[in-house]
Amino acid sequence: MDDLKFGTRNKRGDWSPNGRIEVAPFWAWPPKFLKVLHWLPEYLFPWNAFHMATALAYWYLVVPDVETMKTLSWGWPLYLYAVNAAAIFVMYGSIELFYYAKRVQGNRFKYNAKFPSEQPSDVFWFKSQNIDNFMRSFFISIPLWTVVEVLMLWCFANGSASWVNWNEHPYYLALLVFIAPVIHEVHFFLIHRLIHTPLLYKWIHSVHHNSVNPSPWSSLSMHPVEGFLYHAVALWHLVIPSNPIVALFQLHIAGFGAVNGHIGFEKLEVTEETAVDSHAYAHYLHHKYFEVNYGGDGLIPLDKWFGTWHDGTKEGDAQMQARFQEKKARLNAKSAETASQR
Ligand SMILES: [Zn+2]
Ligand SMILES: [Zn+2]
Fold it and tell me: Closest-lying ligand to the alpha carbon of 262?
């Protein structure tokens, strides 16, 4: 595919898409019903449908029976960890293998012209972003994902969560499935904004931001506190009446869905004419500029409401620069004030 039909490439070879990142169309006023109708399939396919498919596969093929899950032991949690790790290895690993190791698509649609393996740095374990990100994912974040999963399933099994049945309340549960990505967006925005406060950033979130040029292995490369808080989104289903399948779906939006923002390519080419949209650009800009796009790509436009939205355009860039200048001026004024008080 010719990526220059969809965007531009600068002198460094970095590619950026034409147009702007649009927030979900149901926020438009007056309402644009046709746009919402067009947006719906994109909302469901392929990513959310994929997360639902894996949730169902887990429930019917992987998750042990309720009797087993009533008791906390080592056996079934370790088994769940093995499945989670294997699934991530296959899913993230195949994107890494084809698009980063074999580079089947070369640089087409790639935001940053460089590949992480070309940029060794002291901030990473063994000076390698790939090794560092891989180890943090498999030895820190996926174990914590599993901790959340075990806690959640154990609560459903022992009756301490209110378990709603599909045949009794199908519409309620269908609605809950439909809004699970909204729950994800709000939860992620809040914890993400929290760990961007100066102290917590230094202690916790800087680990994730070491990857300025992220690849799929960066997705779950997190400090343990972030690894737990991020996956803890599934625990909302212990608070609201829910069902373990919906809770698993919520967990998979986080665990498997983390890859979306870190693919590094706007589109993954499938054939000469067809490609899958990654929805990665908003979060790519977050890795590039740090203080924009704390949420996702505009399902709930929290960043717009809080003034931190970067829509990928020149105007978005100008707004960000103006905000950075304001912040700098504020900090300078503050330090001048403390100096004069001495
Ligand atoms: Zn990230
Ligand atoms: Zn961040």
Answer: 1
